[in-house]
């Protein structure tokens, strides 16, 4: 393997057929370049899809009441289904091992005003843990905390645009504004540039405060964050089980999907994963097809090389060279050609992918790249490609008889 004379002989064989070797090798290089590039762009597309459509709350299950569209168990259609705190408690007690967080919210659209401005804004009463369930990032002050909840404080966290509307060019934290009929203190400002203007024109208040002011146990929605250990299929199953149980509690027909609205992003993510699985298969087919073409090309060049060196191989065998020695010589040459040109394709593709940066974000491609595992896999594929391309020519060379070789023209 490390015989200098053997390496010199391999180099001599490659040098004597530069054009043919280069064209065959470039097929391998192109195959690996296409494979790595498409694979990297596919990863970037998946990152972009995750960033744009499935953010940190991507796996939350959201349950809201609706209006029944059919009669069931003696109840007429057209009933308004209102969720209550006892529904939240039922979910928390029924699925303690499957749920990481489960909270209720109360959403209102109210008039907000101060001396300079007024307008109608969406305000949602939430629990402190809600901060961990959403994409909003507090940039000034803080979020709702347990003391706000315990004391039923009139504290609010406002979006960046709300702060800008009421306190332009000022620090909003610590200031007061009227929300409905009450005065609230701003304790924090959050941003969510990916959610658009509507997201940053929202307001959060302590859940217990609204519960007391409006004297109600009715909730606008129940939001569930599944346990981290659950996979997509298990999350979808959890959502279905919750839906079935709540429909039974509220006497809603099993197929009445307007009576209770359950949003389960895991189902959409499953469809997305299937899309990217199909995309990966397509990448492998395209890369594999190119790789097969390269294997055939290198196999042809090795067949030609063996044909040219028939007498030489016969003389070697007449002088005592074993079939194994001839076999490994031809195989080694094929593997060397494949590795050199394949490595060139991998390096160029990796450099291209790693230097794209944000140039393709308008196409939802974020941080394209190829993992070390993928590069190792490509290298292994490359080695076996060289092995396969040299196998048949090497076997033919090993079967050459000295007497027939010396007679060859």
* Strand count: 12
Unreliable runs: none
Rg, nearest Å: 34 Å
Number of domains: 2
Overall form: elongated
Number of helices: 13
Strand order of the largest sheet: 3-4-9-6-8-7
Rounded to the nearest angstrom, the distance between the terminal CA atoms is: 31 Å
What is the beta-strand fraction?
A: 15-25%
Q: What is the H/E order?
A: HHEEHEEEHEHEEHEHEEHEHHHHH
Summarize the structure.
By secondary structure, the protein is an alpha+beta fold. It has two domains: 4-53 and 271-407, no CATH class; 61-264, no CATH class.
Please characterize this protein's 3D structure.
This protein has helices at 4-15, 18-53, 85-94, 146-151, 160-166, 196-200, 207-213, 232-249, 265-308, 310-318, 323-354, 372-398, 402-407; strands spanning 61-65, 83-84, 99-113, 118-126, 137-141, 155-159, 176-179, 182-191, 202-206, 218-219, 221-226, 260-264. It is of the alpha+beta class and 409 residues long. It has 2 domains: 4-53 and 271-407, no CATH class; 61-264, no CATH class. The strands form 2 sheets. A 6-stranded mixed β-barrel has the order 3-4-9-6-8-7. The protein has a two-stranded antiparallel ribbon with strand order 2-10.
Question: Mind sketching the topology for me?
Answer:
Elements: H1 4-15, H2 18-53, E1 61-65, E2 83-84, H3 85-94, E3 99-113, E4 118-126, E5 137-141, H4 146-151, E6 155-159, H5 160-166, E7 176-179, E8 182-191, H6 196-200, E9 202-206, H7 207-213, E10 218-219, E11 221-226, H8 232-249, E12 260-264, H9 265-308, H10 310-318, H11 323-354, H12 372-398, H13 402-407
Parallel strand pairs: 4-9, 6-8
Antiparallel strand pairs: 1-11, 1-12, 2-10, 3-4, 3-7, 3-11, 5-8, 6-9, 7-8
